[in-house]
């Protein structure tokens, strides 16, 4: 597949540009255990890129109304922040390289992340990537975060492009659904899990690593 009409590429952050999803998995499970709940791997992975409202509904369905999602989330954040202060968070292989490549070809780039803007800046500025984006949109900047399409529609708008001239790079089913519904060309680079049949139906291309984008643009 060669995408000649693509004028912008919009990147998710967690699991795409930084190797943070494994940390979310670990610390969601540890935080739940502190409150007496057992969160399995599948449940933890399904929280990827969710808005707080969506995640809260999931917690209530799994553990009942006694599960205080906000307290568990705050515990997860504290555990993860303590870890990152000591060990940091790794950049995904090829992240800096592919952004430079795209910009050298005159292709605009944006970040569309459900994470808070400050966290995105903290993760990416240490690698000199954050300020390279032509646009940055966080979940807090839209009415509905992923899996709704708002974040990709806003990112495309801030690039000054229609969504169908933008490629979205995601690692999760939630993100792929968001990008697909926005009308973007969807590229999945799986991180912790391979795409299921429904995600494949919404995905235009599956790649192994970020630098493979060069083969299609």
Describe this structure in words.
There is one protein chain. Helix 1 (21-34) crosses helix 4. The N and C termini lie close together (9 Å). This protein is of the alpha/beta class. The protein is built from 9 helices and 6 strands, in the order βαααααβαβαβαβαβ. The chain has 2 domains: 8-19 and 90-215, Rossmann fold (3-Layer(aba) Sandwich); 21-87, DNA polymerase, domain 1.
Throw out a few tags for this protein.
about 220 residues, Rossmann fold, DNA polymerase, domain 1, 6-stranded parallel beta sheet, 9 helices, about 45% helix, globular
Write the layout of secondary structure elements.
Blueprint: E1 8-11, H1 21-34, H2 41-46, H3 52-63, H4 69-87, H5 95-104, E2 108-113, H6 117-125, E3 135-138, H7 150-159, E4 166-170, H8 173-182, E5 185-188, H9 197-202, E6 205-206
Parallel strand pairs: 1-2, 1-4, 2-3, 4-5, 5-6
Helix pairs in contact: 1-4
Class of secondary structure makeup: alpha/beta
Low-confidence stretches: none
Number of distinct helices:
9
How many domain units?
2
Return the CATH topology of the largest domain: Rossmann fold
Q: Percentage of helical residues?
A: 40-55%
Determine the mean pLDDT.
Answer: 94
SSE order, one letter for each helix or strand: EHHHHHEHEHEHEHE
Beta-strand share of residues: 5-15%
Q: Would you state the CATH class of the largest domain?
A: Alpha Beta
CATH superfamily of the largest domain: HAD superfamily/HAD-like
Label the CATH architecture of the largest domain.
Answer: 3-Layer(aba) Sandwich
Going across the major beta sheet, what is the strand order? 3-2-1-4-5-6
Say how many strands there are.
Answer: 6
* Oligomer status: single chain
Q: Kindly report how far apart the N and C termini lie.
A: 9 Å
The rounded Rg comes to: 17 Å
